[in-house]
Design a protein that fits this description.
By secondary structure, the chain is of the alpha/beta class. The protein is built from seven helices and 18 strands. Strands 5-2-1-6-7-9-10 form a seven-stranded mixed sheet, sandwiched between helices.
Length: 319
């Protein structure tokens, strides 16, 4: 079957690679090169790099406008496949392929429709995550489901960990859906249940409020790692929390209070303490939290307190 594939980040690469081995991909659509690193060097997206390695023609487009629609339609694809492209497919492009478009979404739809499903699910403390391949329709992530599967997630897995795992599992699901469409056996079904929205994360979503329970703080850390990144404030400056862990058998501490121990730094929450493992002070490289704490020259056994927690800006939370 003739496919056009639209995707941008690394999470879309396993699906592209899998489909390229089973179908004819007439073009890959991805977003333009972006500046990366300290030197801000223009770099092709992970999907563009994979497409080049596979020898597939590439269409770089910031949005699927009239020009992009014309170029894609001229290739006469039978099916469009989209995985985290970063833009909307609208008419007439939506109906251009004979079988329309299918979308791999990293949630159990209709839960967490939107831009950041894995991140929002982790922040909310969801015990079950998964992936869905559905038929693309004009309404956001609302089309009929071709295939859906839940997957176990480790209790300390971050958003990066989960996305890497679901990217591989989702490639299998997408290949299954594409094969069913190709042989005429596909029977997509309407979504069932109440929809929730996974709004794109902002920097403020990564702020840790130590007055919340340890479960809530740890869930937020997992959901925002590595982007936009968990952070708190020390001495009026941002302190990035690069690695946070559960603490075992630790004495209670007031929210935001720090105590150095072997292997890290305990930080108090609204319930039990958590363990700061790696931090990154403003203007410095990431380091072991114990090294950072030692540099504060705190007396043995003494504690210090992070700056007072401030609430995240209203409007950043999913509704």
């Amino acid at each position: 079957m003739r496919l056009v594939f639209a995707g941008t980040p690394a999470a879309a690469v396993p699906t592209l690679r899998r489909l390229a081995g089973e179908h004819e991909i007439v073009a890959v659509v991805t977003r333009p090169d972006a500046p990366l690193g300290r030197k801000r060097i223009l770099t092709p997206s992970p999907v563009a790099q994979e497409a080049e390695a596979l020898g597939i023609p590439i269409i770089k487009a910031a949005r699927l406008d009239e020009e992009a629609t014309g170029r894609i339609s001229a290739l006469r694809p039978e099916l469009g496949v989209i995985v985290a492209y970063g833009g909307l497919v609208r008419e007439p492009l939506l109906s251009a392929p004979e079988h329309g478009w299918i979308n791999l979404h990293f949630s159990l739809l209709p839960a967490w429709r939107g831009a950041a499903p894995v991140q929002r699910a982790l922040i909310a403390g969801d015990a079950e995550l998964g992936a869905t391949v559905f038929q693309l329709v004009p309404a956001l992530d609302a089309g009929d489901v071709h295939v859906m599967r839940a997957y176990p997630v480790a209790g300390d897995a971050t958003a990066d960990d989960v996305l890497a795992s679901l990217a591989v599992d989702g490639a299998e699901l997408t290949a299954e859906a594409a094969s069913a469409i190709a042989d005429g056996s596909a029977r997509p079904l309407p979504q069932q249940g109440d929809a929730t929205h996974a709004a794109k994360l902002a920097l403020d979503d990564g702020r840790l409020d130590w007055t919340e329970s340890a479960d809530a703080v740890f869930a937020r850390y997992r959901g925002v790692t590595t982007e936009p990144g968990a952070h708190t404030t020390w001495d009026g400056a941002p302190l990035k929390v690069r690695e946070l862990a559960r603490a075992e058998d630790a004495d209670l501490l007031p929210p935001g209070r720090l105590r150095g121990i072997k292997g890290g730094v305990l930080v108090g929450t609204g319930t039990v303490p958590l363990l700061l493992v790696r931090v990154q002070p403003a203007g410095k490289a990431a380091m072991a939290a114990s090294d950072w704490f030692r540099g504060l020259r705190v007396a043995d056994g003494a504690t210090v307190e992070l700056d007072a927690a401030s609430s995240r800006s209203e409007g950043n939370e999913a509704r």
